Amino acid sequence: MHTEESLLNNIDKWVTNRRKFIKTVGIVAVYSQIAKLQSCHSSNKTVYVANDYLTAKQAEIIQKTQDVLFPNDGNGPSVTDINAYGHFLWVFSDKRKKQNEKEYLLNGIDWTEETAIENYQKSFHQLTDKEIHQLVDFIANTNWGKDWLSTVLTLIFEALAIDSIYNVNKNNVGWTWLQHQNGSPRPTDDITYTKIFKTIGAE
Amino acid sequence: MEQNNIKYDICVVGSGAGAGPIIYELSKAGFKVVVLEKGPWIKTEHFSKDELVACRRNVYSPNKKDEFHVIESKNHKGEWVSKATRDSSKDYWNGNMVGGSSNLMSAYFHRMKPVDFKLLSTYGKIEGANIVDWPITYNDLEPFYAKVEKVVGVSGEVRPHSTQEPRSTEDFPYPPLKTNIISQWIDEAGKQEGYKMVHGARGIISIPNEDRNSCYYSGYCGSYGCSSDAKSSSRVALLNKALKTGNCTIIPNAKVYHLKTDGNHKIIEAQYYLNNQKKSVKAGTFVVACQAIETVRLLLMSKNKDTPNGIGNENRLVGKNLIFSAGGIGGGNLYFKDFDEETDKELKKQGLFVNRAIQHWYEIDEKEAKAIGFNQKIKGGTVDFLFEHSNPMPKLIRSKWQGSKLLYGSELKNKIKKYFTEQRRIKFEIFNDWLPTDDCFVTLDDKEVDKWGDPVAKIRIGYHPHDLKVAKLLAKKGEKILEIIGAKNISTGISGAPSPNLVVGGCRFGTDPRSSVLDSNCKVHSINNLYITDGSFIPTGGSVPYTWTIYANSFRISHHLLKILK
Ligand SMILES: Cc1cc2nc3c(=O)[nH]c(=O)nc-3n(C[C@H](O)[C@H](O)[C@H](O)COP(=O)(O)OP(=O)(O)OC[C@H]3O[C@@H](n4cnc5c(N)ncnc54)[C@H](O)[C@@H]3O)c2cc1C
Ligand code: SF4
Prior knowledge:
- Chain A is mostly helical.
- Chain A has one domain.
- Chain A has 9 helices and 2 strands, in the order H-H-E-E-H-H-H-H-H-H-H.
- The relative contact order of chain A is 0.14.
- Chain B has 2 domains: 280 residues, 3-Layer(bba) Sandwich (FAD/NAD(P)-binding domain), CATH 3.50.50; 166 residues, no CATH class.
- The structure holds flavin-adenine dinucleotide and iron/sulfur cluster.
- Iron/sulfur cluster binds next to loops of chain B.
């Protein structure tokens, strides 16, 4: 059976180390910083920018893929409304997260680019919207693609449904859409995931 | 190694449900008690209903990069294969912190019944299972079940039913928690089927007492810490009181790795890591309650020239007969469109409990047993009803799959929206005995080590096929009730995969040292001052969750210790 954890964790088979993992040590990104790493919108065109974790091309691939997985279709929030991309980036700053899990997220982006070149003889960023949809449909039917997209979806779900203190689920837009009643008390700054270890003396 | 020069009367390793009663009773009686707990001290104000912290990133358990287990399970060819939980989705930690996993339990509380203490003499042998009678009876434990109700805090109401266990007190000290309208429907459905539903008790206080607030129906109980101290965790109900005596010292982040013996059947020192430094503490009596798997690991790691196989392991029994709780989970959807508006309003009310259980088939009579292939009456179990947990992530994650197909796009969003807004899922959990077998045990892994370089526990998780047959029969009873109350898409998953949070055994108690690790007072047979008071002592069981029994037995051992130490 597929479970979220198994898809995040059971990735040994994908860890091929084709790329050197970038900047893994000493990165302490907080959510507000992550917010600044996101794409800039100028007039109608979105400019995808490189950041500590992704090249501009990688940033474009993941954001456009997220948009296909969880589209802005008028039913509930979009990935932008929930800051799904910011959350994706934040995962890389998590010191407790295993290195191979982070690599897996990056590998999937690169495999998507490879598949674009194989299928369309052009880079992902040159694909039309229609071709991007076709590409996602294609990779969702491959073994690696199904697992990777599923992992990306899980991170989108986190952005949709965890507390907005993490700069996701903005204005509780995800909870409102799902008519979800949150638990109480909600986390305060000192007991969020990034700070709780220090607060409880476990660091 | 830095030695603590104070010699304590009692040193307790672990601070969860198995440790709490000892710490409380002995501190109260004036003994100097030191508690070594591997996890941090998380206070009530540090808990929130943050799903990222509690569930998604497992903050309350060690990081599996540093500390993990090795699980041995059968592959499709029937061969045993090992995999470290570091590299899989499995997690056999349940909550490492002051108060242990009792901080995180859902607190479904059931007593065991008289028959649980004498399975062998009641039902006879089962091929391939190591069934025994307990060296004590229900009557020996009953006063301590009653004590837990009062001291630790259990709410409920006695409503006689076909398998009601005997009680020394008339009713629960805390009245039942408020329930959702669905509980009435379940009661009615039971009546229709010709039996009475059990009104389930909870280790949660429904009215405040002098130190604790009552439950505020947060709807986020299991896996979360309680912000009102209503949940009867060891930390809140027992350790906080022990601290007030001035006789109790709790050392958090202290991971015990070795118990030193004096070569003369006594433990003299507990050795532990604190901030990566080696330390030790001396005491007259030692109590270990690290939860079954880690307790076994500590005993096996405490090898030296006097105890070359590990402590208490002269007969190679330490780690054997580990048991979980067998069963599975079923459920169905109650669609709001099937009920009127008023009813929907009631059904949607969050936070209210279900607290209903079937125990009518705690024993399965000959006729029903024959229908599933047995030739005599057999032990059955419990079916506990509950609503699907409130946290959204598991529901979201499940919704992305349609069989093995990954859903995404508008189709997925539609499915999610409908699931969250058009129905409420009612579930049941089945608890039946996990028969002890030679295929379920704990050893030390010979290769994998934790961050301190100590061998990790290796757990073989084989089960007896008998368990699945019983679970399937119980599932039918649960499904029938769901059908009557109007649930749709009813299904049950029964499997031999264990629930790591319901684990006991591994140091079974008994009267004969050749077949048990502990004596009937849970003292290690071969060591004069070492007691094991978590669920490790339990030789058979599992038709109810274990915590009430663990608490009660720990009170029983406290009683014994108070007698011999005074
Ligand atoms: C999510 C969840 C839901 C549950 N729901 C229920 C329920 O509804 N009903 C029920 O009856 N039970 C339930 N349980 C189970 C219940 O929590 C346990 O049965 C109970 O806490 C076991 O008590 P224990 O003392 O054996 O272990 P714990 O309470 O876990 O305590 C063991 C302690 O030992 C510490 N420790 C381990 N190794 C070492 C070491 N080497 N040195 C120092 N300290 C160490 C651990 O950190 C831990 O704090 C649930 C558990 C979980 C996690
Ligand atoms: S308030 Fe009640 S439901 Fe919430 S965690 Fe505490 S005991 Fe559980």
